[in-house]
Design goal:
The protein is of the alpha/beta class. The protein is built from 16 helices and twelve strands. It folds into two domains: about 200 residues, 3-Layer(aba) Sandwich (Rossmann fold), CATH 3.40.50.2000; about 160 residues, Glycogen Phosphorylase B (Rossmann fold). Helix 1 packs parallel to helix 16 and helix 6 packs across helix 7. The longest helix is centred in the C-terminal third of the chain and has 31 residues. It is elongated, with a radius of gyration of 24 Å. It starts with a helix and ends with a helix. The N terminus is likely disordered.
């Protein structure tokens, strides 16, 4: 099976290089002049700064397509494609809706997030779909991309209609096992050259696809996005260097506490409970971009047995996971996917209400592929950590789709179909222009 898949992927990549090269030389798009070397195409990616995974995914796609595409990223919330940002208006420009979402997430206002995400926003976006479509059309007219990619929620119907008007291939890259926000109004889409990538085809996810009347031929399993540094194996010597760089003790197991790039005050509760253990350990408290959380961590005092390091936002998470023996986190697919590829055992917090889409991520992905246990109280967390310190869980490996490769593969049929449409349009124009005998 693996040999067959490898052979198929090789043929796809070969076809992609031939297709892209011949298309750029024979008939450049957007009236770009031909040259001796094939000109790069242009990809436009719709992004968001809400959470951390959207921008991370966009950058991974950018790197994956760098050989054949120049990439432009646009945040629809910042260029007035989405409806007026009421949060920005009410705060007199102090913060916008994405900042507000990040603040709610950091402070644990989960019920408010769920109310907004699944009740308020769908109604607003449905009413504003034609407004968003017109603004998307203006953006496409200005940028003239060869490929449109979305890694965000809500806007995908409007984007598909605009892309259809300009005959631009459209790729929707979803990042959750619950697609309701991603497929808002998508049952109304009629774009013939569109593909939706999903992390995995679970029964619940495919039921949502069927409900939206989306043909399975439009669905492609791509896995979750993963930074390339998580695919690098770190030997004992490298791990020793990492410990030295971060001033981590050699005689204590490392436990990472992390809840996404926005940080979370729940980490303080985790740390206090674990510090009451009578077993030696060192905590990595990942504060992310949360300045308030950093101040709270600074007020903590290490116990007799448990010390800690406060870690601000860093691009060295892969290194720190490599030297850790356990991760305490929320059921976030991004963080948990990184932990699984690092072979890092996990304790997943279910002690409080979580955002609705995390339930599907936990049941259909994290518990299915990762070495994970659930805790429903901080008391249970303390017990599970103590058990792990007495008898550590061994590292493991996972066999999941490689996101960057799958993204390159999925673009091949989109470009091929686009080229056929362009050739057909050219043939029709030539036929109309030909003199009548």
């Amino acid at each position: 099976m693996n040999i067959t898949r490898h052979f198929t992927n090789t043929l796809r990549l070969l076809a992609a290089s031939l297709l892209i090269g011949s298309a750029c030389i024979a008939k450049p798009l957007n009236n770009k002049p031909a040259s001796d070397s094939p000109a790069k195409k242009k990809a436009l990616i719709l992004v968001s700064k809400g959470g951390h995974c959207h921008m991370m995914t966009a950058n991974i796609i950018k790197d994956a397509l760098s050989d054949t595409f120049d990439t432009v990223m646009v945040n629809p919330y910042e260029v007035s494609i989405m409806p007026t940002d009421s949060v920005k208006w009410l705060s007199f420009g102090y913060c916008d809706g994405e900042d507000f979402y990040n603040a709610l997430l950091s402070n644990g206002w989960i019920r408010t997030i769920n109310l907004m995400a699944y009740h308020l926003m769908p109604s607003v976006m449905h009413l504003a779909r034609h407004y968003m479509q017109r603004n998307m059309e203006e953006l496409l007219e200005k940028e003239k991309p060869d490929l449109l990619i979305s890694v965000i929620h809500y806007i995908n119907y409007a984007a598909s209609k605009a892309a259809e008007k300009y005959k631009i291939p459209f790729l929707v890259t979803t990042l959750d096992m619950d697609l309701r926000m991603w497929l808002q109004d998508f049952e109304l889409s009629t774009h013939p050259n569109c593909i939706i990538t999903v992390p995995e085809q679970s029964p619940g996810l495919m039921k949502q696809i069927k409900k939206k009347k989306i043909p399975t031929t439009m669905i492609h399993t791509a896995g979750f996005p993963l930074k390339k540094e998580f695919r690098v194996t770190r030997d004992a010597k490298t791990q020793e260097r990492i410990r030295h760089e971060w001033s981590l003790p050699d005689n204590k197991p490392i436990i990472m506490l992390m809840r996404g790039g926005a940080g979370s005050y729940n980490l303080i509760d985790y740390a206090k409970k674990i510090m009451s253990l009578d077993q030696p350990a060192h905590l990595l408290i990942m504060a992310g971009k949360n300045e308030g959380l950093k101040e709270k961590i600074a007020q903590l005092k290490p116990s007799t047995n448990v010390s800690f390091t406060a870690v601000p936002f860093t691009d060295k998470v892969a290194d720190l996971m490599a030297v850790s023996s356990l991760l305490v986190t929320a059921p976030s697919p991004g963080t948990c996917n990184e932990a699984m590829h690092s072979g890092l055992p996990m304790l997943i917090d279910r002690s409080c209400e979580s955002v609705i889409w995390e339930k599907a991520n936990l049941n259909d992905f994290i518990l299915k592929h990762g070495q994970a246990k659930i805790f429903r109280s901080n008391r249970e967390l303390k017990r599970l950590v103590a058990e792990h310190l007495k008898q550590p869980v061994e590292r493991y490996t996972v066999d999941l789709p490689r996101f960057d490769t799958e993204i390159r593969d999925v673009i091949v049929p989109l470009l091929f179909k686009q080229q056929l449409e362009q050739q057909n349009d050219a043939a029709i124009q030539d036929a109309h222009a030909a003199p009548v005998a």
